[in-house]
Every structure is written in C-alpha cells, then in structure tokens.
Amino acid sequence: MTKRVLVISHGHPSFSLGGAEVASYSLFQGLSELPGWESHYLARIAPPVQAHRGSNLMWLRQKEREVLWHANAYDHFKCSSRDLSGIERDFIRYVRDLQPDVVHFHHFLGMGVETIFALKRAFPRLPVVVTFHEYLSICNHHGQMVKTGRFALCYKSGPAECAGCFPDIGEARLFERELYLKSFLGMADLYVSPSHFLIDRYVDWGLPRDKFHMIENGLTVEGIAPPRPLKEGGKRNRFAFFGQLTEFKGAHVLVEAVGRVPKEVWGEDGALAIFGGNLERQPEPYQKRFHAAVEKAGERVRFYGAYRSPELPGLMKDVDWVVMPSIWWENSPVVIQEAFLHGRPLLASNIGGMAEKVRDRVDGLHFRAGSVEDLVDRMVEAIGTPGLWDTLRNGITQPIDRLECARQHAVLYDRLLARHGGVSVGAGALPVERAVAGPV
Questions:
Q1: Which of 75, 85, 205, 189 is nearest to 128 (CA)?
Q2: Where are the domains of the chain?
Q3: Which of 62, 147, 175, 271 has its C-alpha lying 20 to 30 A from 430's C-alpha?
C-alpha cells in the first residue's frame, strides 16, 4: 500500500529561494521517486502575492501535488499565527481531504506553531515530524544566536540571558515565549536536524534528545562541474561566495580579506565571485562598510547577482574554492553540500555547523570566525601551497542525493507509523481558535 507524506515549507523555492526551502522541496521530490511512497508539498506564500477569495489555499501553476497556503497574519515574537480560524478553515480541511500518513514540517515560520496543535487535535494518531533549520525557537534575534548590537556569539539561551539582548521585552515575556513554543513543539512526534550541533543546542534548551534524529539534507543533482583547467604554472586562485549579503553571512569579512592578500600571491588572474543579493535590504551602516571593502578590493571582486540551484554547475566551473565566512553558528548550509558535490574544497568559519561539516585540512580549511587576518592567512595558504587543493579535493565525501535522503526519512516514518498504528480523523476535536486563545 502506498504511504502518503505531506511536506510543509515556509516558502516555495519558486518564490523564496533559501536553504530550508530547497531542502524541503528536495525531500518532496525524493519521496515522490521512492517506491511505495507518495509525497505532497504545501508551501506558505505571502504578499506581494494576493490571496484568493474565500480560501487561503491557492495554486499558481506549480507542478502536480504542490499547493500554496497564503498566510500573512503572523506574530514573529511567538512564531504564532493570528489567523487561528484560517488554520481550522483551510489548513485542517486540506489535511482532512488529503489524508496523509505523515505530516513533516520543514518550518512553521509564517504559519505559526499552532498548526502542530491543530493537527494533533484533529488527527490524534497522525505522526508529525519537525525539521529544525536554525535556532529561531531558541533565539528571538532572528534565530541567529548572536548578541544584539555587538555581534558576539551567544552560547546560552534563557529568559535572563535573552533579556540582556531585549531589555524592552523583559524576562517575564521571554519566559512566556519559551513556554509557549515548547508547549507546541512538544506535541511533535519526532525532530530531524541536518547537524549534530543544532541537536545539542535544542537539547540544551530543553527538548528531549530521544526525539531527535540527524539526517543530512539531500541534494538535487543537476550536473557536476569538472575542475577548472589550469594553464602551465597557473594558481588555484579563484574563490566564490554563495549566499545572501547579510552581516550574519560575513561576506564583508571575505571582501576585506581579499583586499589584503598580497599582490604577488593573488596573481593577475585571481578573483572573488559573489553570487547573492539583498544587500539593499541590510542596515545602511553595513551597506557602507561592505561597499568600502569592495572599493578597496577593486577588480578582485566580481558581482554576479542571485542564482538558482540548477545554475550551479555552470557557476562552479570557474571556481576553485568556496568560502563560507558566516559569523553566526549556521546549521548545515546547503552551500557546503553543493561545494562538495562539485568537488570544491571550502574555507569555512570554525564554529557551529560549518566546523562540523567542513573537516579542517581534510576537505577544507578553517579560519577564526569574523577574523579578516586569519582568513587572509588561509587564502594565502590555499593559493600558495602546491598540491593542497588536490589533497583537500580528494578528501571530500560526496553528499547524499535527494533519493537517499528520502530513504532515510522513510525509515523514520515507518517507525512512527508502526508506533501509531494509523491515522484518526478526529472529527469531534476542539477548534484550534478555542484551544489556544488564552495565554500559556
């Protein structure tokens, strides 16, 4: 008998291109290719796209088994929905019509943690899985676990510590936020994380370790870029950055480092290619700092704008090294897997999921997070050490593809289904707006 999985994402890659969106969509595709399984994809969408009349469910010429859910009434502080009646009217009705065997959230951002409660009230025996992609539940600072104002790494969360970043909110409301989120997240049957580092952070926060399973995100392979051919005496001196141009991603650290590499090391054909965007949405002081660094680096830096995953083979063909200079912990950046897929060693910050995924002097080089000087040293080493690129390239372990990722998830789904023994429709369940209307 075919088993049906509903994969839920906070955005569709066609409208919102981020690591979590790509990971969720790859899982959806992988499950659809797995014998005995059928997958469906429900993705949140928001303005400027307008909702349809009468229902927040919509279709904008996506592929088969893909539906959009317009959700914009959202409380970012509590990761909470302000449209509880809409959850009951549209979301629960959709799930009841679909009758999935498993529901898998790849995020609840924009939709609200109350969606987990609504499912459990309506279908008590329906297995619910939640994948964590960052630390949003733990940290009110955009889930970055970085101190506000000074960008120092945060090692511990809690009402007292968080009140130091948000004194205007205060310990009492931050404690209420923590309890609110834990009460809903605790209803999920299983948690998935693409890194052990993230698991440890959530366990320290208070979620049970025995509910967690580590499964790396699976990639959709569009083609493999061969190594860049070198002229006789040529250098491996082509670097690339892939990602959003935010302060947390540390692109400014990389650009400043590029400007300081000695000319005789850099070479006449050295270059840093930046693939990404959204700099215009960042705070003005950061934009000024970034532009100043670019001006100093001069012709060494080349901008190519935003990109999509199918373009990667073409982008990677002229790249030797991928640089991951994030100044926050990260989790399991898709960029790392994509670089490894194409056989490109990485220079990565020595913290969090980056330090876990990139093995220093095995398949990449670590540098001190946020340190321009240390990154300069590693870039000089990367360019100037004969045979280093080949050694690190040979140390790369190929990442799993979307089908293998789906297989590993299917094992977990089968365990949950055996434990639950089926799905209950729960027709007499308490409406979600009545159940969660009051404070925790």
A1: 189
A2: 3-218+402-435, 238-394
A3: 175
Q: How far is CA 51 from the centre of its chain?
A: 26
Q: Quick one: tokens of 262?
A: 């000695």
SS3 40: strand
What's the CATH architecture for 3-218+402-435? 3-Layer(aba) Sandwich (3.40)
Taking residues 369-398, what's their average pLDDT? 97
| Omega before residue 48 within 30° of 0, cis | yes
| Among 6, 188, 1, 205, residue whose Cα is nearest residue 96 | 6
End-to-end CA distance of the chain: 41
What is the C-alpha to C-alpha distance for residues 291 and 92, in angstroms, rounded to an integer?
48
Q: Domain 238-394: which topology?
A: Rossmann fold (3.40.50)
- Kindly report the number of other CB atoms within 10 A of residue 75's CB atom: 11
117-156 pLDDT, tens digit each: 999 999 999 999 999 999 999 999 989 999 987 778 998 8
Question: Is this model's pTM higher than 0.85 or not?
Answer: yes
User: Nearest 5°: CA angle at 247, between 244 and 335?
Assistant: 35
Say how many residues make up the chain.
440
Contact 325, 243 (CB under 8 A): no
Q: What is the pLDDT of residues 49-72, one digit of tens each?
A: 888 877 889 887 778 899 999 998
Structure tokens at 106: 């790849």
DSSP 362-419: TTEEEE-TT-HHHHHHHHHHHHHSTTHHHHHHHTPPPPPBHHHHHHHHHHHHHHHHHH
Name the residue with tokens 């969606």: 115
Q: What count of Cα atoms within 13 Å lies in the side-chain half-sphere of residue 133?
A: 18
Beta-carbon count within 10 A of 101 CB: 21
CA 300, 302, 307, 312: dihedral to nearest 10 degrees?
-50
Identify which of 116, 119, 151 has the alpha carbon closest to the alpha carbon of residue 137: 116
**Both structure tokens of 314:** 């073409």
- Give dist(CA 14, CA 25) in Å, integer: 10
